[in-house]
Design a protein that fits this description.
The complex is a heterodimer of chains A (204) and B (259). Chain A has 204 residues and is mainly α. Chain A has helices spanning 6-33, 39-47, 54-81, 93-124, 131-138, 141-168, 175-201. In chain A, helix 3 (54-81) runs antiparallel to helix 4 (93-124) and helix 4 (93-124) crosses helix 6 (141-168). The longest helix of chain A has 32 residues, at 93-124. Chain B has a five-stranded mixed sheet. The mean pLDDT of chain B is 94. The A-B interface holds A 3-7, 10-11, 14, 79, 81-86, 88-90, 92, 94-95, 97-99, 163-164, 167-175, 178 and B 82-83, 168, 170-171, 173, 175-176, 208-221, 224-225, 231, 233-234, 236-244, 247.
């Protein structure tokens, strides 16, 4: 990387985590949630995607999802491995959030890679993405557990990431505003976790 | 002549020792006779007077840094029972025993408990943590600083570059080149000063480079550890906002410098 560009990369990493990756996660989990209405509702909802011309869908996928996600993921791995965790000596709430943010981030790189392989790449290889595909995957209890941990990691990483996003861009400065946003972000975590976990359980 | 009160109490002390820079480390145990009002410095002085380990072996006296002995110079910082703090203001009465002393290993260890805090002073030079007033002629008086602002800025000025926040920060280490909380807060201090603010874009430019402001990971350990209660994380968040504005100015602005 060119000299003296680190500030830019870090800010870009922070921004991309929210727009578009964070927005995409909320959209993705919401779409999954239609599975709670049964297989037909889910297939109808995901079928909407098929109405978009294939070339356009590919462009949107790369520009809105893959490229920002890959940058956020790989630069994030670099950030995570430059940290020296010290929660043993400083067991404060924020220090634990700092640590869990990095732990969930690393786990998500593995989980998301696996998830893309199991769904998007299989689709590219000729499989059909529908209710039955997910139902087959989570029929395996170990896979279900892996998915639940993955979903919770993603919802946590986004919720807590929103908190640090607001600090990193200088929006929340005072300790009071940072504290209130902590509560809001944790409430957000609970809500999207419920949505995400209910959705995955609908496939069981 | 008053003889020191022999309380009969013995304090167990464990010290992480290191003879040379990058050399091997070892723990040594000591038994020190307790005196009233002892702090960690007087404990170390006692060992210096009689450098014998708990199992009776003669050893080299311990090396450490100290200066003011009233928690304003920052020289005597070390890790005491797991927490970085000043040894002068660490009273033995308030510490759990055995008292474990380690150097702040986020800095290069010179010997025993003595560390090299040069990176902090280098950082202060890098961010131009001063008010430049030198010129070829008398520049006259600068703008006045409102009294309330002065009182507030004084809190930031309490920083003694002791290194405790650097030690506490998980992003300051040999594997990461983060400038650390203390020099960042100094940027806020000097950018607040009415004369210092005349060069605020230069300081911001420095911390918007490699290893700068954006490398903060918001663990907020610094503000929890700072012995002077400096609002380091508020300083960082405030600089984040200033940097965001500066970023837009740099890109979209025409020929802006300071304002």
């Amino acid at each position: 990387m060119s000299k003296n560009r680190e500030f830019l990369w870090r800010r870009l990493h922070s921004l991309l985590g929210v727009i578009p990756v964070g927005l995409f996660l909320v959209f993705h989990l919401s779409l999954n949630f239609t599975a709670t209405g049964g297989s037909e509702a889910y297939n109808d909802a995901t079928g909407m995607m098929e109405l978009i011309p294939h070339w356009l869908l590919l462009v949107v996928e790369w520009v809105v999802i893959y490229i920002p996600l890959m940058f956020h993921a790989f630069y994030g791995v670099y950030i995570a491995f430059t940290a020296t965790h010290n929660t043993k000596r400083f067991g404060t709430f924020r220090n634990w959030m700092f640590r869990i943010q990095r732990m969930t981030g690393i786990f998500l790189v593995v989980f998301v890679a696996w998830h893309i392989w199991q769904t998007r790449i299989q689709k590219a290889l000729g499989d059909e993405v529908n209710f039955d595909m997910m139902a087959d995957i989570v029929a395996n209890p170990a896979m279900l557990a892996f998915y639940i941990v993955g979903i919770l990691s993603a919802t946590f990483h986004l919720s807590n990431g929103l908190w640090s996003f607001l600090v990193s861009w200088g929006i929340t400065q005072s300790p009071k505003s940072q504290k209130i946003v902590t509560y809001i972000s944790m409430a957000f975590f609970v809500v999207i976790s419920v949505v995400g976990v209910m959705a995955i359980l609908a496939f069981v | 002549m008053a003889v020191e009160a022999n309380t009969g109490r013995i304090i167990d002390v464990e010290i992480l020792r290191q003879d040379t820079e990058n050399g091997p480390t070892r723990w040594e145990k000591f038994k020190v006779p307790y005196r009233h009002g002892m702090n960690v410095i007087s404990l170390l002085m006692e060992i210096q007077r009689n450098p014998v380990t708990a199992d009776g072996k003669k050893t080299a006296p311990i090396t450490w840094d100290m200066n003011c002995l009233e928690e304003v110079c920052g020289a005597c910082s070390m890790i005491i029972n797991g927490r970085p703090r000043q040894s002068c203001s660490s009273l033995v009465d308030k510490l759990e025993t055995p008292i474990r002393l380690e150097p702040m290993s986020t800095f290069p260890v010179i010997r025993d408990l003595q560390v090299d805090r040069s990176r902090m002073f280098d950082a202060l030079k890098k961010v131009k943590a001063w008010v430049p007033i030198d010129g070829t002629y008398n520049l006259g008086e600068g703008p006045r600083m409102p009294e309330r602002k002065r009182q507030w800025a004084y809190e930031l000025a309490k920083c003694m570059t002791c290194g405790v926040c650097m030690e506490a920060c998980p992003n300051v280490s040999e594997k990461a080149d983060f400038i650390g909380p203390a020099p960042l807060s100094q940027v806020r201090l000097f950018n607040t000063h009415p004369t210092g603010a005349m060069n605020k874009d230069e300081r911001l430019a420095e911390i918007m480079g490699d290893g700068g402001l954006a490398n903060c990971g918001n663990s907020q350990n610094c503000v929890a550890a700072c012995p002077k209660g400096i609002p380091l994380t508020t300083s960082i968040a405030s600089l984040n906002r200033a940097a965001t504005v500066q970023m837009f100015k740099n890109f979209f602005g025409s020929d802006h410098m300071v304002d």
